[in-house]
């Protein structure tokens, strides 16, 4: 997994990814885009599952299977001692916010289209940017604020919000956004001392524990086919979080967050091909605005990083 990071060997040589993309900021941006794809694949799988299974049972199953997948890989590659953390208190705080936010999110995905859920979730970078200033001491440049604001305008073009269209799914998704933003801020804080693999491992352990009481309330026995989809959700989720946390290690969280706006494109495609929901003209206009804002921030941050390396 060192391919994502700064080093690829014991001698400190750069990884293949670092040689291909020398700028840490650019690598962070690319990893964040890849994470967005993985997360929308996860959301599409979840939406398929919650048609037949309780959402909170699906959440617990996805984390449990994810834990069973990642633990043997980590132990085999670096030994049992590699799973130790000195920041368990931060892991627990993150688990609390993560469980609350994603419980609301999973419940909402069952009620509203993926593109709408993704669009509402993209108000998260605003909370992350504010939190990065207040709690992480990051300097958020004007161009980052501009990218966040312009991207969110694109989201509004797609959703075209109006009070008449609000329902419980929309309200739960809106409520989940600042809580999930807090979870992402804790993740960024954890990267100062722990590797992405350790962070995802403890996230999986604690999420499994936290979601278990919620799953017991509506327990089901999945069919063989449903187990296959749950396993796929676990794979998408673990890959997404490993990519995301590696992105947070390479770049300021407020810089990489706008790239997640691209997820609206993948969500709209899933809505069309998997759930028979066609994208209208405002969706494409909004997506174009989002892609433009994301491309702009990626270009400016990469250019700034290159100047610092000179």
Write the layout of secondary structure elements.
Blueprint: H1 16-20, H2 24-49, H3 55-78, H4 88-109, H5 114-121, H6 124-135, H7 142-159, H8 168-190, H9 196-216, H10 224-250, H11 253-256, H12 263-275, H13 281-309
Helix pairs in contact: 2-10, 2-12, 2-13, 3-4, 3-9, 3-10, 4-8, 4-9, 5-8, 5-12, 6-8, 7-13, 9-10
Q: SSE order in H/E notation?
A: HHHHHHHHHHHHH
Runs in which pLDDT lies below 50 for 5 or more consecutive residues are 6-11
Rg measurement, Å: 19 Å
User: In terms of structural class, how would the helical and strand content be classed?
Assistant: mainly alpha
Key attributes of the depicted protein:
mainly alpha; 310 residues; 75% helix
What can you tell me about this protein's structure?
- It is a single chain.
- The chain has helices at residues 16-20, 24-49, 55-78, 88-109, 114-121, 124-135, 142-159, 168-190, 196-216, 224-250, 253-256, 263-275, 281-309.
- The two termini are 28 Å apart.
- Helix 2 packs antiparallel against helix 10 (224-250), helix 3 crosses helix 10 (224-250) and helix 4 (88-109) crosses helix 9.
- The protein is globular.
- It has 13 helices and no strands.
- It has one domain (23-309).
């Amino acid at each position: 997994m060192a391919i994502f990071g700064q080093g690829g060997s014991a001698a400190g040589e750069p990884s293949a990814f670092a040689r291909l993309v020398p700028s840490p900021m650019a690598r962070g941006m690319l990893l964040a885009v890849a994470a967005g794809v993985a997360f929308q694949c996860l959301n599409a799988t979840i939406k398929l599952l919650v048609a037949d299974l309780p959402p909170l049972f699906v959440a617990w199953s996805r984390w449990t299977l994810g834990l069973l997948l990642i633990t043997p890989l980590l132990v085999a590659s670096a030994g049992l001692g590699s799973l130790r953390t000195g920041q368990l208190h931060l892991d627990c705080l993150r688990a609390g916010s993560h469980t609350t936010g994603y419980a609301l999110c999973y419940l909402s995905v069952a009620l509203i289209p993926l593109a709408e859920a993704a669009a509402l979730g993209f108000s998260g970078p605003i909370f992350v940017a504010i939190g990065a200033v207040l709690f992480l001491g990051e300097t958020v440049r004007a161009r980052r604020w501009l990218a966040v604001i312009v991207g969110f305008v694109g989201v509004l073009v797609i959703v075209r919000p109006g009070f008449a269209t609000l329902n419980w799914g929309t309200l739960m998704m809106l409520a989940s956004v600042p809580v999930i933003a807090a979870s992402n801020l804790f993740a960024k804080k954890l990267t100062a001392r722990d590797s992405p693999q350790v962070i995802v491992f403890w996230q999986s352990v604690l999420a499994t524990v936290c979601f278990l009481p919620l799953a017991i309330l509506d327990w089901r026995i999945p069919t063989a086919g449903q187990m296959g989809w749950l396993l796929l959700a676990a794979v998408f989720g673990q890959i997404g979080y490993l990519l995301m946390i590696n992105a947070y290690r390479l770049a300021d969280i407020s810089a990489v967050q706008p790239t997640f706006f691209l997820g609206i494109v993948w969500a709209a495609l899933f809505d069309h091909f998997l759930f028979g929901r066609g994208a209208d003209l405002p969706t494409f206009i909004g997506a174009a605005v989002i892609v433009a804002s994301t491309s702009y921030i990626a270009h400016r941050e990469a250019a700034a990083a290159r100047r610092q390396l000179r």
